[in-house]
């Protein structure tokens, strides 16, 4: 969960078209929930502290 991942690995879990995945990753990035770092031909995405806090709230909602 906290491990940085490239788009190809994320897509194995999400099973979205490339354009849909890119769209959703951009929304998460624009809202500060993930960040992307270029490494050669790849962009490696990782969750930000803000994203971790939101995920924590979602996981504990209703408890």
Describe what you observe in this structure.
With 63 residues, the chain is of the alpha+beta class. It has one domain (5-60): Winged helix-like DNA-binding domain superfamily/Winged helix DNA-binding domain (Arc Repressor Mutant, subunit A). Helices cover 52% and strands 22% of the residues. The chain has helices at 7-14, 18-30, 49-60; strands at residues 5-6, 34-39, 42-47. It has a 3-stranded antiparallel β-sheet with strand order 1-3-2. Strand 2 (34-39) and strand 3 form a beta hairpin.
Tag the structure with descriptive keywords.
63 residues, alpha+beta, 3 helices, globular, 52% helix, Arc Repressor Mutant, subunit A, 3 strands
Give the secondary structure arrangement, pairings included.
Blueprint: E1 5-6, H1 7-14, H2 18-30, E2 34-39, E3 42-47, H3 49-60
Antiparallel strand pairs: 1-3, 2-3
Question: Can you give me a brief rundown of this structure?
Answer:
By secondary structure, the chain is of the alpha+beta class. The chain contains 3 helices and 3 strands. It has a single domain (5-60), classed as Orthogonal Bundle (Arc Repressor Mutant, subunit A), CATH 1.10.10.10.
